[in-house]
Design goal:
Sufe protein. Chain: A; 4 strands; 151 residues; alpha+beta; 4-stranded mixed sheet
Length: 151
């Protein structure tokens, strides 16, 4: 990745950290879940409104590092309006990307702005930061009550 592209990616991450999208509480969500990363202290509460297998609304609250918050913000922007099936496919592809398991012929463009987090694969501790919101999302979709932890 060239320096100019890396700088752009850093700017997007910092923007989503400073001004996270969908950073609020949905008053009566159909689904919700909590997530915690004890390694760096990231905490997230995720709220969903799912109707007819479609994510009609999604929001989050919490605190954490720039990567964790940016990942949750980007996720919420991309997932809103998607079906549960589409959401799970995006989750799988995102996980493969951040863990470095993505096939080199795979279409990264389908992940849109999420590709700004591709660089975390070089930093194993940051993979947990980027993935926390996503695992919390899957927990919420599956209506699991126990909090997600990265440990």
């Amino acid at each position: 990745m060239d320096a100019e592209l890396r700088e752009l990616y850093q700017q997007v991450i910092l923007d989503h950290n400073k001004s996270p999208r969908n950073f609020r509480v949905i008053e009566q969500p159909s689904n919700s879940s909590e997530g915690y990363n004890p390694l760096c202290g990231d905490k997230i509460n995720l709220y969903l409104t799912i109707e007819d297998e479609i994510v009609k609304d999604i929001s989050f609250q919490g605190s954490g590092c720039a990567i964790s918050k940016a990942s949750a913000s980007l996720m919420s922007s991309i997932i809103k309006g998607k079906t549960i099936e589409e959401t799970k496919k995006i989750f799988e592809k995102f996980q493969e990307m951040i863990t470095g398991r993505l096939d080199e012929n795979s279409d990264l463009e389908s992940l849109g702005k999420l590709t700004v987090l591709e660089g975390v694969k070089e930093f194993p501790a940051r993979v947990k930061c980027a993935g926390l919101a996503w695992h919390t999302l899957i927990n919420a979709i599956n209506k699991k009550k126990e909090p997600v932890t990265t440990e």
